[in-house]
Amino acid sequence: MQDFAQHFINGLSLGSIYALIALGYTMVYGILQLINFAHSDVYMMGAFCSYYAARFLNLNDSQGLPSFVVLLMSSIIGCAILGFLIERLAYRPLRNAPKLNVLIAAIGVSLLLQYTGQSVFGDDPKVFPTVLPNVPVLEGSSFTVHSLDLVVLGVTLLTLLVLNLLIFRTRIGMAMRAVSQNMRVASLMGVNPNRIISATFILGSALAGVGSVLVGLKYPKVEPLMGTMIGMKAFIAAVLGGIGNLSGAVLGAVLMGLSEEMVVGYLSSTYRDALAFGILIAVLIFKPAGLLGRSATEKV
Amino acid sequence: MGTDRSTPLLQVNDLQVYYGAIYAIRGITFVVNEGEIVSLIGANGAGKTTTLRALSGLIPSTGKMEFCGKDLRKIPTHQRVGRGLAQSPEGRGVFPGLTVRENIEMGAYCRRDVAQIASDMEECYQLFPKLRDRRAQLAGTLSGGEQQMLAISRALMAKPRLLLLDEPSLGLAPLIVAQIFEIIQRVNKKGVTILLVEQNARMALKQSHRAYVLETGRIVLEGMGHDLLENDQVRRSYLGV
User: Fold this and answer.
1) What is the largest CA-CA distance in chain B?
2) Interface pTM, i.e. ipTM
3) CA distance A245 to chain B (A)
4) B105 lies within 8 A of chain A by CB
5) Is the dihedral of CA A156, A157, A160, A166 positive or negative?
6) Does the B8-92+160-237 domain belong in CATH 3.80.30.20?
7) Which of A142, A240, B1, B133 is placed for a possible disulfide with A2 were both Cys, Cβ 3.0 to 4.6 Å?
8) Do residues A253 and A16 make contact, with C-beta atoms less than 8 angstroms apart?
9) Residue ranges of the domains in chain A?
10) pLDDT digits over B66-98, tens only?
11) Residue ranges per domain, chain B?
12) Chain B contact probe: residue of A172, A184, A185, A197 with most B CBs at under 10 A
């Protein structure tokens, strides 16, 4: 058990990255009941945005907070614009179409982004700029906390805090919650649902943008298919926590990251990915609505 | 208000609604004058709720709808409340996962006058003291009557000129129904015009200045509330006497 602390730290750090991506799935699902398959590719595009921003601005060798912030901003802005456009061009025209049609459109957008990435950026993996050093900052007898772990945790916590304030303390956040509960009634209150849906896509995509930079720093490899597996796991994390539920997505993601690291540590890394799907199957059998999800109760 | 209740606020001409192949509203014409309480009564499926939904723009329809002299069709659904047309929807439609207070705030979403909003909220709490006690509670945990009160407060927060009320008495105990109608009268006396949809025909006719009787998508009768109460056809079909 002496490695437990180390696995715990790794798992927490991995889980918080999953959380940033899982939130995008769960927010869009909460408002449109759509599984946005393109979300993982928005994440990928975010990584490329910051990769090219670094190349363009010659930040590859400049370590430090300003470079990190520049990468973060370019990824966030790139993802936000992309998320907005995807909703506007691909999903909004299908607003009154059957849900299955929108789902198929989402798969289409996902493939479009992947192949665009392959033809524009090339298949070969690129190295993400190491704008922050990864040095041990805290060493215990059986574990080491690296600076990047702290950055990942710190940035994630800060992002979650801002998100929380936005959703629960602002007018637009209240409108988002209202629309996700009853879009028609919200429009009777004067809420323009399309505007709220756009805002949701922008926000969710921006979170994926944050995630992509954190992943890029920790696992510095950027390629057009990098979103597939992590997106799948983040989606599973969202389902695990109860899709549509924000705290559920964070909880599910942390559990997912922790269990994955524990499997790697105590069993074998071969089972790492199988575990995610095992968890999904188990949850769907025993708790179809997820850990914090609940079947809607309505009074008549 | 001292209004003579003869200035038209809402004018509907030959309104028609199709639900797919179902011809739900078959060309109805009615008017709601400034200061009135007008009710639409009729059996289940007569088209009462459909009419309100068409007015709010939640479903497509054809025909003329004029509100304050303006063509309603040119105003998107979410902007109609800002023009003075608020609806308390069928089944109350409160946001179950928002607190009571947030639900009331949502009612004022179209407004920007923060100070006035706060004092209007206070007025709502005075109208329905129960809501004040429960303001921090999720709306989904309220009883049916409380949810109805919340839905009405929320609609009032928009400061409407015309309030559309869909079945405010549905599923409520008689005592609560009486309370709700008393509030409706009070709100009306403050100058809010009300279009009421009800299955509880007796209550609705007693409380309304005028009423229309809807049968399978057509208006079959209209008149003063108390006249319709005496009408043989109404008594047989809707009052059970």
Assistant:
1) 51
2) 0.90
3) 11
4) yes
5) negative
6) no
7) A142
8) yes
9) 21-225
10) 999 999 999 999 999 999 999 999 877 899 999
11) 8-92+160-237
12) A185
